[in-house]
Amino acid sequence: MTTAPTASASPETVNAVVIERAATGYALFDCNGIPILPGDTVKVFHYVAAVRREKRYMYKFVLAVESRAEGKPPLMKLSHLNLKDEWYWVLMDGRRLESYEIVQGYGGVPSGNDYRDRERQKHNSD
Description:
The chain is α+β, with helices and mostly antiparallel strands. It has one helix at 11-24; strands spanning 41-48, 55-66, 75-79, 87-91, 100-104.
């Protein structure tokens, strides 16, 4: 499996990594079909407030992708962005996470490109 692109990676390299991960099923996508990579900040739906019925969100930061034993999908490590060093794992099995949305993209994409330029996953209804 290919590692995450470096800060000097070209847009073609970033898309190649994204396409390779999607083809093997080792990827996660946000609600817009954009692949989630280490360095992304994602907005996650939390609950609907009782008083004004407003949606509340949590923000998470993607720290890393950890590979596991042969044949097992890797895990994505997400930080809770709190004062403690706490995180949780999400299995990278090719799902589209409907309650996740990228709000700030991967910092390693060269200047002039951002997370919106990544190859998107086709939705079942597309």
